[in-house]
Amino acid sequence: MDCNCVSDLLLTSPVPALWTPGFAFPDWAYKPESSPGSRQIQLWHFILELLQKEEYQNVIAWQGDYGEFVIKDPDEVARLWGIRKCKPHMNYDKLSRALRYYYNKRILHKTKGKRFTYKFNFSKVVLVNYPLLEVGGSSPFLLAQGPFGGGGPGPDCAPLTPETLQSLFSSPRLAEPPSRSPLYERQPEAEKLRLDAALPFLGSGVSGYSKAPALLGPYGRAAPFPEYPWGWGPYVPGALPLGGSKLPAALYSPHFYPGLAQLPPPPPPAAAAALPPPPPAGPERAAAPRPAPPPGPGPGPGPGPGPGQGAPPEPGMALGGPPAEPASDSELEITDVSGSSSENEAGSPPPPPVPPAARGRPKGPARS
DNA sequence: CTCGGAAATG
DNA sequence: CATTTCCGAG
């Protein structure tokens, strides 16, 4: 019976409409195709979710390059994950095993040298437009399939609220539920209308510049990836040419933010015009047995002065990309070039959001 | 700590 | 199929 698993995760915040940028992933990301309303959350989804909330900054946070994140409190993360999956005996060891499985799937990478540091392979991840902001409704495009439906709301064991999922990957149903088939069967070619953008980056250190997210000031945590102008060419060939999911060539993501409204291709007319107020972010964690991370007064990591994104991405980002990676499991890919060496921002160690005073980190043996 | 093989599970 | 669990090796 019951596992009293309180899903303390997302439902903590009301999840206003204004969430973080809409991150979306390719089909393979959430492969619910087979399971209609019950798609268990995947670990990496969960991680992303955590990363998205400041509440968990003490537990996990973006650090380093684009998709790099550090698990500050493996225990807590494991616990949360356990809660989400109703696995009381979960611990970092197990969780990490699952994470390791991602290596082969190429969803994650391990940043060697750094304890608990992994990196998302966004090379495969597709950034989609973000959830329309009702406040401005500036996004003409965007949409996403609307899988929600009716189908089965009960995702996890815990009484998850729709808003929870809605926060991230689920699907911004703002498109409209017109003719939703019982089982959203994704039309092969129809490709819904989701404008996806393939982020070919991944070169990571290559550019070696910028890194800190701070995308949404007021919001706090955004993934450190999309802060660049759309310098990527028209979608990189071989970016995600998996034999299974074929993405339309029209991948471009209008990732404009009010703050970054200075993007080159600014389609949104009233983009900056509408910037909803920041969420209060006060009440969180309703039923957490182990409230570990004090919300903290909010050192204000996010809103920071911004990394002055004046610097455009490396022009020559050679993402040559693996022209083809059919079924080879070879890990060629561009892997983190920097990673190999240590992915260190040598030379650009700006203001790393690495809160030193972490607190309770018993494990901090003399790191050097 | 990190890496994976292997068996088991829903 | 995606973990979960267990575990030996490095």
From TrEMBL:
This is ETS domain-containing transcription factor ERF-like. SMART domains: ETS. Keywords: DNA-binding, Nucleus. Residues 41-121 form the ETS domain. Belongs to the ETS family. Residues 338-347 have a biased composition (Low complexity). Residues 263-368 are annotated as: Disordered. It is found in: Nucleus. Residues 263-282, 290-315 have a biased composition (Pro residues). Gene3D superfamilies: Winged helix-like DNA-binding domain superfamily/Winged helix DNA-binding domain (1.10.10.10). It holds the Pfam family Ets.
